[in-house]
Each structure stands twice: as C-alpha cells, then as structure tokens.
Amino acid sequence: MTKDNFTETGDLLSVEDLRVHFHGDDAVARAVDGVDFRVGHNETVCLVGESGCGKTVSALAVLGLVPCPPAEIASGRILFAAQDLLHLEEEALRRIRGNRIAMVFQEPLTSLNPVFTVGDQIGEAIRIHRALPDDELRLRCASLLEDVGIADAEERLGDYPHQLSGGQRQRVMIAMALACDPELIIADEPTTALDVTVQAQILGLFRSIQQSRSMSVLYITHDLGVVASVADRVYVMYAGIIVEQADTAQLFRAPQHPYTRGLLASLPTRSRRGERLHSIPGSVPSPARKPPGCPFHPRCSYAVESCRRTFPAMCDYGGQHMSRCPVLFEAEKPRRQQ
Predict the structure, then answer these.
(1) What burial letters (b/e) apply to 314-327, b meaning 16+ CB within 10 Å?
(2) How many Cα atoms are found within 13 Å in the side-chain-facing hemisphere of 30?
(3) pLDDT digits (tens, 9 = 90+) for 234-265
(4) How far apart are CA 77 and CA 62, in angstroms?
(5) Residue 165: per-residue pLDDT
(6) Is the pLDDT of residue 316 over 80?
(7) 148 and 33 in a common domain
(8) Are 64 and 75 in contact (CB under 8 A)?
(9) What's the predicted TM-score (pTM) here?
C-alpha cells in the first residue's frame, strides 16, 4: 500500500514498510521485513502465522518496546491517529503507551509483578495518566475487575497474582489494558496458556468489550480458530512479511496463498474425522538466513523456478483481498474472468 493510501484511509493505525532488524555478531536477523497493515476504528484485525514469523516484534514496534540495540528500526512508518510513532520523543510516546494504546501480553504470570497486589497493578496506569484521588482510584479499579468478569472485585484488589487462577490473571491483564479507556488494544496470544473453556470465555470477553467500548483490537495469534472467532480482517505473516490479507470470511472461503491454504488444511474438521491431519513440511527459515526469492518456496508444492529467484509482489484479487503468490494468481485468472 502506498503512503498516500495510508494517509487517506482515516484508519486508527497504519503501518507501512516496517523493517525491524536485529544485529548479531556475524549476521543481521530481518525479523520484520517490509510489513504493511492497518487497523480501522472499532475494528478487530488479526496478525496470524507460525512462531518466529515476526508478529510479536511488529506489535512491540508499535509501542516502541523493541530494544534498540540490538534491534534497529531500519525503515517504515507507524501512524497512530495521524502521528508517526517512530518519530515521537520518548516522553510523548509514554503519553500514548498504556493510555491510548494498551497491550495484553501472552503469559500473565510472567507479566504481572508477584510482589504487588492486583489493585496496585491495575491502578498504575491510571495514576500515571489520570491522577485520580485514592478513593476514586480504588472504585475505578474495582469497576474494571467487574467489567472483566471477576467476582468480589473489591476484595480481589488486595490479592497477589499467585492467588488467582490462569483465567483470572488474564482477566486482570485485560483490566489493566482497559484502565485508561484506550482507543487500541494489542492482544498478543492472550489465550495460549489457557484451557479451551477459559479460552472461549476470554475471547467472548474481548468481543463484548470491543463492542461496548467501540475500540479497536489488533489480535496476534497462530490459531485460525481464534481468527474465525474474533477477526473482521486478517493479515497472514510468514518469515517477516505479509503473504495474504483479506476480510475473514473471504480468507476462509477462498485462500489465495499456498501458506494460508496449508494452515487451513491443518485444521481438524468433522469431514476429516479419522484422517491424518495435513502438515506443512519444513519450518520457518531463520530471519538471518532467508532463502532468495519467495521465502516460502522451500516448503511450497506450487513453487516454480521464478519463485526461487524473484521476491513476489502482492497480487490484487479485489475487495481488499491480496496475496503474494503470482503462481496461484495466474492459475486462478481463467476462473476470475468467467
């Protein structure tokens, strides 16, 4: 997407040509290698892909949490409400981080401080950005716990993280993110460590909060079941790049990249009961040793010689559905022309 397209869409968050490199002793790891994505107002967008594809690094870059060094933001723009976050002074970025943009991390037990109470940790962002009196602060923290479905909220403010279940700790993390009524929440695999029943509850909580507060959500996951449950639009990442983007229904109905097709084929369904699940051969390449051409070609059954030499451009299927696979694009051309 061009710079003009980004600035004219009116999206809440627009990321353009983001490149995040990590410098090692003998190589440069291109963890994020030219990523474009956008999140509209009151929209839930998913970044989906295998571990190591660059999803979390992309999200951390939005909040200015990528450690530099060893990392380097090699290029790109991150526009939030028309401000380029990459060019803000640290003080200005701190006024946005935790206030207008908040993040829910993957593992609450390691993200929550074990020596501070739940109330202290929920109230921290409010104390920094809102400066409420103590009595109002306590009422606000209790209200947030009630909003995320924790019973006996007033009493729970004095609990420590180890006194809560995994699902309760994740709800506390969500309450912390909601503390200052952010316009955007970034949720980094928030249900990975939870059992299936609690996962469903947390996903339902995200949906209800997003609708009631009219905020935007950038959801990071490797789980296509989660994508189907929460997303309005989807960006599929592989080896630091976006390989396909579409609205959720279109992506599941007609995936147009071999990687996306492989991910969807690996999902268990009733029609495949008793069958061996599909798996994509090989693994994601190291960010420091990516193959030439299309980074997916060593694992791709559709690959031709040009895939091994030429980095693929995005192919436009219309309706904001785009895929980085010219081989499938040419194969699908007769059907599209009918």
Answers:
(1) bbebeeebbbbbbb
(2) 17
(3) 999 999 999 999 999 999 999 999 999 998 88
(4) 10
(5) 86
(6) yes
(7) no
(8) no
(9) 0.89
Evaluate if residue 233 carries a pLDDT over 90.
yes
Which residue range(s) make up the domain with 164? 109-181
Query: What does the pLDDT look like over 64-87, one tens digit per residue?
Result: 888 888 889 999 999 998 889 999
Spell out the residues 6+ positions from residue 288 whose beta carbon is closer than 8 angstroms to its own.
Answer: 24, 27, 28, 29, 30
Q: Same structural domain for residues 84 and 24?
A: yes
Are 34 and 14 contacting, i.e. CB atoms less than 8 angstroms apart? no
Amino acid code (one letter) for 32: V
Tokens of 109: 């037990």
d(Cα 103, Cα 14) in Å, to the nearest integer? Answer: 17
- For 2, the token pair is 């061009």
Looking at the structure, tell me whether residues 231 and 291 fall in a common domain: yes
Looking at the structure, do residues 166 and 131 belong to the same domain, yes or no?
A: yes
Say which DSSP state 291 is in: P
Residue 230: its H or E element:
helix 224-230
Whether 33 and 153 map to the same domain: the answer is: no
**What does the pLDDT read at residue 203?**
86
What is the C-alpha separation between 224 and 48, in angstroms, rounded?
Answer: 7
